[in-house]
Each structure stands twice: as C-alpha cells, then as structure tokens.
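Collaborator request, handled under Task 6.
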Amino acid sequence: MSKDARLDSLQRQHKQLEEDIERSRNDLSSDSLDTWTLKRKKLSIKQQMSDLQQQASL
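Structure tokens returned to the collaborator:
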C-alpha cells in the first residue's frame, strides 16, 4: 500500500472514530471506558498519520 493510500485509509478511520466517540458520548447506556477506548484508538491513528506525513516530507 502506498503512503498516500495508507494516509487516506487512516483519515477515514480517524473520521469514523470521531463519529463513534460522539455517538458514545450521547448514548446514556455507554460507559466512559468505551469512550476512552475509542479516544485512545483515535489518538493512535492520529500519531500514525503524523508519522506518515513526516516521512512524506523527507
């Protein structure tokens, strides 16, 4: 997978997680651990995107 394709995939995952986090926050039956887990995944993806962007600029 090329860097551009990987970055696009990560961006889609990041956007989906953002939507999932918002749904989790609004869902009264959801607990904070669920939201926390989603946020951690989102942060990890953001870091991967940053790393790829840095590699592309080198």
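The cover message to the collaborator said: "Helices lie at 3-26, 32-57. The radius of gyration is 14 Å. Please let us know whether this matches your experimental observations."
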